[in-house]
Write a structure and sequence with these properties.
This protein is an alpha+beta fold. 45% of the residues lie in helices and 11% in strands.
Length: 71
């Protein structure tokens, strides 16, 4: 069993993005009419599979370094 500290250092997997998509379906606000975009920030980064999935499903992925570069 992994501790929460171990999970904090793991790369974000595609399951997190899929979970967000599923949860967005629970929001009853112009569902079926709205455009959905998601932004996820991770200290540890993202798996390659997650980056590919994000590019196809309206996700923007950032690490703190990415955000710092925007300033």
């Amino acid at each position: 069993m992994s501790s929460s500290k171990d999970r904090q250092n793991q790369l974000v997997d595609v399951g997190v993005l899929k979970s967000l998509i599923n949860k967005s379906r629970l929001v009853d606000w112009y569902y079926g009419e709205r455009s959905e975009y998601f932004m996820v920030v991770s200290r540890s980064g993202f798996t390659e599979q997650t980056r590919k999935f994000a590019g196809k499903h309206n996700f923007v992925l950032y690490t703190p370094e990415d955000l710092q570069a925007q300033v």
